[in-house]
Amino acid sequence: MAGEAKNYVFMEPVLQEINKNFVSLPENMKKQYNIYQVVIGSIIDKMKETNPLFSNLYRELFYGGSYYDGLKISKPEEYDLDLLMSIPKYAKPELSPSDLHGFVKLKLTELEKFKQQPEYKSYYTDLPKLLDDENYLDTDRVKKWMHSVITKTMNKYEKRGDQYKFICETSQFENTTFYIKVVTGGPAFTLQINNEDMKMDVDLVPCFVFDNNWPIHCNIKPNSTSSPTYFIVPKKPYTNPNDGLIGRCWRMSFQIQERELIRNKQSLKPALKLLKKLRDQLNHVYMSSYFLKTIFLLEIGNNKRDSTFWTSHVSTTFMEMLKVYHSYLTQKRIPYYWDETYNMIGHIKPIIIENYANKVGNIIKKIDNGAADPLSVAKFFLDQQEMNHLTEYFSAFKEKSPERALNQTLPKKMKSKPNSN
C-alpha cells in the first residue's frame, strides 16, 4: 500500500506483551493436544470397524484450523480435524465449476463401470447413498451418512445421559475416563470431550481429497506452492446457486497451500493474531478469522510486500496490515485469494461494513497522530480487566527500571494472566 512509512516502534513493547499475555495460548496446551489425539485416534479406528465404506474411503486426518497454523488466540480447547477421504479412481470422479465462486461439483462419471469391479461388491455397495440421481456427490447425503457412522460408533461405548463414557487404554493416559457428547452443526460434527480436569471441542469435518489435476478449470489460480493436495468440504454457500441444486456445491479448501504461504514470515503470525484480537475487542462478529488471514495471503501471493516486510518489527507489520484491512473495509470487498473475482464479504450488509471501517479508521488516526503513552494503544485491544493487569505490570517494571519502561524490550512475560472467565 502506498504512503509515507511511519515509525511505530514506540508501540513494540506493549504489543509484544499483549501478544505474550493476552493472545498466546496457555503452555499446558501440549498435554491437552496429546489427550485428544489419543481419544480421536481410538474413535476413528472404531469408525473404520463399524462401517466398511468409511474404512475404504478414509485416508487420514488433517489437522486444520488456526491452532495448527499457529494463529489461535481464543478458546484453545477448540480443534478442527478434517476426515480426508478419497473416491476410488475406477469411478472416475471429476470436478466441475459450480455457479458459485470457490465451490465445485463432483461427479462419479463411471460409477456403473466401477460397480463391475470385485472390490465394489465387498466394500463400496453403500457408495450410491452419497450421490444424487445424476451421480453427483451430495453434501447433505454425505453428512447424513457420516452422522450415522459416528452415532453407531459412539453407541459402542457406555452411555451416561447424552454422553458416552470413554476410557483411555494407552500407557500415557491409562484408565483415564472422558465423557463425550456428539453435536451436529454446519459441515462439522463436534465431539465435546471432558473430564474433571479438562474439556475440549473437536470438530470432525468430512472432506474429499485430491492429489493431482490442479483445478484451474474451476476458476482457481495456479498453485505456487510445493503441494498439489487440496480438499472439498461440505460447507453451505452464503447464497444459493442459480440451478437450486445446492447439495452439489462443495467448497474448495487449500489449507496446505495457505499454510505454506504464511510459513517462515517472522512478524506475520504475531501481527495477524493482534489483528484478530483487535477484531474481537471491536466486536467485528461478521469478520471471520479466514477473512483476516486472506488479507495477509493477498499481500504475500500478489507480491505486494518484499521479504524484508515480514522481518520488520511486529508493530510495523501490524499497523501496515491494519491499514490494509481498513482499505478493504472501505471498498466493502475482500477478494478470495484463490479466485479474486469473488468478494468474500459481499453477503454482509454495507452499513455493517461501513461501521467496521469507521472504527478501524479512527484507531489508525489516533495512533498516527502520535499517542504519547503507548499504554493508550493497548486500550484498543484489551478489556478493562486485561488493561488493569497490563498497567500494573508496566507500573511495577517502571519503578525498577524507568529508563527502559515502555521503550525497550521487556525482560519477562507476566507471571499470570487475568482470569477471563
Characterization of this structure:
The protein has 421 residues and is of the alpha+beta class. 39% of the residues lie in helices and 18% in strands. The protein contains 14 helices and 13 strands. Strands 1, 2, 3, 4, 5, 6, 7, 8, 9, 10 and 11 form an eleven-stranded mixed beta sheet that branches. A two-stranded antiparallel sheet has the order 12-13. A hairpin with a 5-residue loop joins β3 and β4. α11 (314-331) packs antiparallel against α12 (350-368). It is globular. The chain starts with 11 loop residues before the first helix and ends in a 21-residue tail after the last helix. The model is unreliable at 401-421 (pLDDT under 50).
